[in-house]
Amino acid sequence: MDSWVQIITGLFTLLGGISGGWITSYVNGKAQKDKLSIEFSREREKEKQLKEEEKMEIYNSVLKVDGEHIMVTHIGGHFTELDTKIYKREIRPILYQKLHLINKDVANTLWAIDNKLAECEFNEDIEPEDDSYLSNEYWTLIENIREHIDDYRDKKAREI
User: How many domains does the chain have?
Assistant: First the structure.
């Protein structure tokens, strides 16, 4: 009978050791997985923040050029004219440099201006109505950029 008690005691000890090892391994594995998940989330958030800051730098560059030049002039009546040379030479390249980062409304306005300019180049003339359209779209572009910068500031203020 003593031998059976020793065998049973040995089996329970062995099962306890195996169970304890398995539970410890499971808990440690879960902790490691949770830690990696948190670290991965932090890295994603950091990458997202860097892209957002890069986009704001693009927008700041556009506003800088806008502030340094008279982009839209009044040409009489209710007509205005966009300085297409400066737009094509300075504004457009800034936005196209990182087009994948800019907001959709800004990109759509950029494309609307580009399409109208292409149409005017095809027709070899810019009519006063075309000038007014280009000016309005340009103002929309600048307003959208300002709104995104304001939203970014508000978001940063809430984080603090």
Answer: 1
